[in-house]
Write a structure and sequence with these properties.
By secondary structure, this protein is mainly alpha-helical. The protein has a single domain, classed as Growth Hormone, Chain: A (Up-down Bundle). The protein is built from 19 helices and no strands. α3 packs across α6, α14 packs antiparallel against α19 and α16 packs antiparallel against α17.
Length: 436
């Protein structure tokens, strides 16, 4: 029996989720956990690194941003190749590179070497994030697609939580270098799991039709107990062409694309201010070193709950309204942060802020995954992330200068509340027929 591309994909998207789909989604979830761990260990290790290498707050901000420069390169120049060679291939190669470079960071003996390795590890992290979001959106059932994309991206703060708990034990006893070695090994251990159990995107195989595509499609369909194909459908010229940024800026997509880029740029400038500086800011508020590390853990635990909640609410009320509500709530919480006294209340606020900003931000991933067709989806997600990385680069550097100038914690939070609110407005105004 021969089926069309759309009928095959529609059959998968509108039936009960299979074991293969679950496996694909959960591997993507674990990859994002490792991403969160590999990104956040620099934040948890920052006090020890600064002491050993005699790094000032301003220079430390540059080290944070070096990883974001690498992530920008990964999402901008590496992730789009997933639309050419496949999502699984790029995830596998990126995971290998990411694990290797994170491990190599443990041997940095100077600020320059630290910057170099953080940039290189960021390349792998950025390309993995874009590819896992895309692959999840292509395997998740249509009715619960927003939830599953949010769930997978929720692996990021869970990884950050686990790395925070590990950092609180490993760094005081064995030092920051052992922390990087542990993270690198954990990432490399995932490679066999990816190789043997991660399935390529059916959307990609059907529309791009790489070598042996029919055989690969039928293997996947067989595992999902679906009817196999006799022949592959005819590809259009649009599907054969190499993806480019021009495809994201066609007249029907241009406005929505630019609004998405603006929303992610503003959200990430504030998010990376928070994720990179929370342990430092927490210590400034009077928390002990141990509690300062746990502040980041509380932030990311709140983030995971927020991401899952956002995925559920988006399915009921629409992505744009939900994202706007989460960002607005976060902006209000950041404004009142300076009025809160006492370690318990500081930790509670960190958790609530994590709930709101990460929940809203991950909703923008779901927006990007919905806005673009398969043939340019990873390119669209990658370029959206890249626009955000620019904001993410600026945020920590700006915070470093503000803190170095003696600007109070309360004022810092008020300053970064503005881009969060504006990100919510931009998300609310996104124009796309694919987004509720």
């Amino acid at each position: 029996m021969s089926l069309t591309i759309n009928s095959t994909i529609s059959t998968i998207e509108n039936t009960k989720i299979s074991t293969l789909q679950f496996a694909t989604i959960f591997i993507c979830f674990f990859m994002n956990m490792l991403d969160g761990m590999d990104v956040m260990i620099i934040s948890y290790s920052a006090p020890s690194i600064a002491k050993e290498l005699a790094i000032s707050a301003q220079v430390l901000g540059s080290v944070f941003s070096a990883g974001l420069v690498g992530m920008t390169i990964g999402t901008l120049f590496i992730a789009p190749y997933a639309d050419i060679f496949g999502r699984r291939t790029i995830i596998l190669l990126s995971a290998f590179w990411m694990g290797l470079m994170v491990f190599a960071t443990s041997y940095a003996q100077s600020v320059e070497q630290l910057l170099f390795f953080r940039c290189l590890s960021g390349i792998g992290i950025g390309s993995v994030l874009a590819s896992t979001a895309t692959l999840t959106s292509e395997y998740a059932p249509m009715r619960t697609k927003d939830f599953w994309v949010s769930f997978v991206m929720g692996g990021y703060p869970i990884g950050a939580v686990l790395s925070g708990l590990a950092a609180a034990q490993i760094i005081p006893m064995y030092g920051w270098r052992t922390m990087f070695q542990t993270a690198g090994i954990a990432t490399l251990v995932m490679l066999p799991l990816i190789f043997f159990f991660l399935s390529e995107s059916l959307d990609f195989l059907l529309k791009k039709q790489p070598k042996d595509a029919l055989q690969k499609v039928n293997v996947i369909l067989n595992k999902m107990n679906k009817v196999p194909l006799i022949n592959l459908p005819t590809r259009t010229d649009e599907l054969i062409k190499k993806p480019s940024v021009r495809a994201l800026l066609t007249p029907e997509r241009k406005t929505g694309t630019l609004q998405l880029w603006l929303a992610i740029f503003l959200a990430l400038s504030a998010l990376y201010f928070l994720t990179n500086w929370i342990p430092k800011l927490a210590s400034i508020t009077g928390l002990s070193v141990a509690l300062a590390i746990y502040a980041g853990t509380v932030f990311n635990l709140g983030a995971f709950v927020g991401i899952i909640t956002q995925g559920y609410l988006s399915g009921r009320f629409g992505l744009r309204k939900t994202i706007f509500s989460f960002f607005t709530m976060t902006a209000i919480l950041m404004v009142i942060f300076g009025l809160v006294k006492g370690s318990v209340f500081v930790l509670i606020l960190f958790g609530l802020i994590g709930f709101g900003i990460q929940g809203g931000f991950v909703g923008l991933y779901a927006v990007a995954a919905r806005m673009y067709p398969t043939e340019i989806r990873t390119t669209g997600v990658g370029f959206a992330m890249s626009s955000g990385r620019i904001g993410g680069i600026i945020g920590p550097i700006l915070a470093g200068f503000l803190i170095g100038m003696g600007i109070s914690v309360a004022t810092n939070f008020m300053i970064f509340a503005l881009p969060i609110f504006c990100a919510g407005v931009a998300a609310l105004l996104i124009k796309s027929k694919e987004i509720a």
